[in-house]
Amino acid sequence: MKTVLSTLNAKYIHTCLALRYLKAYSEPDFPVTIREFTIKDPSLNIVTDLYSQEPDVLGFSCYIWNIEETIKVIQMFKKIKPETKIVLGGPEVSYDVAHWLEHIPEVDFIVVNEGEETFKHLLTQIQNDGGFDSVAGLAYRKDGNPKINGPREKLDLKTVPSPFRFEEDIQSLSKRITYFETSRGCPYSCAFCLSSIEVGVRYFDPKLVKDDLIFLMDNGAKIIKFVDRTFNIRRDYALDMFSFLIENRRPGVVFQFEITADIMRPEVIDYLNEHAPKGLFRFEIGVQSTNDAVNELVQRRQNFEKLTRTVTTVRDGGKIVQHLDLIAGLPEEDYNSFRKTFNDVFAFGIEEVQLGFLKMLRGTGLRLTAEKHDYVYMDHSPYEILGNNVLTFDEIIRIKQVEDVLEKYWNDHRMDHTVKYLIHHVFQSPFDFFQEFGTYWETRGWSRIGHQLEDLYTRLIAFLTEAAPHSLPVAESLMKLDYLERQQFKPRKPWWENTQNKEETSKVLSLLAQYPEMIDGFPALSEKDMHKHAFVTDTAIDPLSDQLEPQSEKDFLLIALFDPKQQSTKVFTTSKKSLLTKNS
């Protein structure tokens, strides 16, 4: 019996951990082939590939991001090979099971919730031509009607074989994100989240977990993302794992965790700040809302004071990148309340702020009580809200405009110096800057066309010319610094028209070749190398100082030195007048 498991990932770099658990649990009794695609792959190409595998049983792992494309593949495949048994599993089809059996008649079975034991039991029954009434956790049709068997007892995770030892995965470990779990379940009951449905937290065997991590690192894995819903729920466990990863790290490996910030113990943070190498760890923290009344409505316990302590202490330690999540559209959080939530979180000054929109997931408490808050939402995945009793669709559109430029101008870190200046010195708040700019971006139609890096700079200049022309001298100076710091090679044509006088530039480079001590930290280079690898432009301020008021028009020089071998850039600034007159 030939069994094939498949899924459509969001991108190639993502891998499906669920399929690998099913394969590991089913083998060697039932050999399993895994075929992974992306949601952008043409359906016919996917069907062609799966057809070539000649499966007797074909399983799909289903999520909100792939269910619609998966249905197309299933319907097409069943027309070509109707005798193949189609099995679905995953969070998207584990709820409203009768709906899916009715909605997708091509599907033969649905594995509900945790699937390892259920899927293997199902394969046994298919092979033996047995009945399916005894397969706990399985849904199917009997006499034309949906039949949903009773739930299966939770799996003893310490008996689950490793999903990370397949030979076919090893060669791509360095190119893809490796998803890893050390526990299942969540201790919280947030009404918008599927994780809240499974009560309690179960752990895998810690020794086997550590063995797998060593194996993955030794075989080239570079990004290992832990999918535990609350990695730090047990202080001693988290501290032991952090310590293990620090002591056994390999060059270039990054570990990502989902943590709950307000329960992070100070001694754990102190340990990380003292012992963790910079860049080894990355924390994803779900804040969602800073409105206590909103959090209470969704049964979310959060101590913002303790959360603030954790985030700021980690930030000040300078070792760990932090990514904070927000959700727009929670019950009774109107536009102004969300604006405050956004500003509260942005005030932390951390590396990434992810702005998402509430999705009414099947099986969640919030979807079951949607009428209480007049929720309107998409009928199909991703079930995103279109409005409620306090947030109109017009306001959702506006917040989406914030999300658009937030990703481009903050989370991608293209203009950190510039954005910090604008949100602290020009606009009323961070939210107001992103909102005004996002609305301007949309009215110009830029969201419907592509852009190059240089376009991001010229479009911001266009916006500031209308919205805050007084800020242009400082903003343009900081944008030049942001641009040059990110370049690995001397730019042939920067985003601005470089009006720097060529004779003056030549004089500057000649002086610095002779007297590099004129600028603190400036390296000794030959005049030839200076002309080859240095870029000079004038600015209204010294963008590396704290002085953000122009002294006179273009009184400063910004000098960038590019090292093509190291692909690194060093930027220096100096007063144009003092440099040119010192040795005249």
From TrEMBL:
Its cofactor is [4Fe-4S] cluster. Transmembrane segments: none annotated. SUPFAM superfamilies: Cobalamin (vitamin B12)-binding domain (SSF52242), Radical SAM enzymes (SSF102114). The keyword Nucleus does not apply. Residues 1-133 form the B12-binding domain. Keywords: Iron, Iron-sulfur, Metal-binding, S-adenosyl-L-methionine. CDD domains: radical_SAM_B12_BD. InterPro entries: BchE-like (IPR051198), Cobalamin-bd (IPR006158), Cobalamin-bd_sf (IPR036724), DUF4080 (IPR025288), Elp3/MiaA/NifB-like_rSAM (IPR006638), Methyltransferase_Class_B (IPR034466), rSAM (IPR007197), rSAM_horseshoe (IPR023404). Residues 172-403 form the Radical SAM core domain. It holds the Pfam family Radical_SAM. PANTHER family: ANAEROBIC MAGNESIUM-PROTOPORPHYRIN IX MONOMETHYL ESTER CYCLASE-RELATED (PTHR43409), SLR0320 PROTEIN (PTHR43409:SF16). This is B12-binding domain-containing radical SAM protein.
